[in-house]
Amino acid sequence: MHEIRVAMGLPSTPPAAPVVPEPVVPPPPFAFGVELLATDASNSTAAPALPVTVATDASRFNFVSVMRAITTGLTNKTLDQAAIPSALAKVGIPSLPMLASRPELIATFAECLGVEL
Across the strands, what pairs with 31? Predict the structure, then answer.
């Protein structure tokens, strides 16, 4: 190969390989109101550990708590699924996922639904 380069008038050493940037690491997953901790703190590429959200009495009226109450009610058959759209209409929300963006209505929704948070 060296002889061919010299015969063509090219430098005898090949050009340096291009620098490839490191891949971007996506942020850690999270859930509504609950932040997950990084599992391996010794790994230098891992995201730093995030604080864990601790539930207090004031934060019990959140979307996660109402979803837990709905799931428990449906599982125990103490709640009818047909009651959910009716309770949503009473608080003026068109769908259950949209309730997450209106935390001030969660306590009223739970009361209309008849579940305890």
Answer: 34
Kindly give the confidence (pLDDT) of every residue in the chain, 117 residues in length, as a single tens digit, with 9 standing for 90 and above.
667 777 777 776 766 777 778 777 776 665 554 444 444 445 445 545 444 444 444 456 788 999 999 999 999 999 999 999 999 999 999 999 999 888 889 989 999 998 887
Take residue 24 and report the two structure tokens written for it. Answer: 């971007």
Q: What is the pTM of this model?
A: 0.49
Length of the chain: 117
Residue 35 Cα to chain centre, angstroms: 8
In sequence order, what are the beta bridge partners of 6?
Answer: none
* The token pair that represents 92 in the structure block: 């003026």
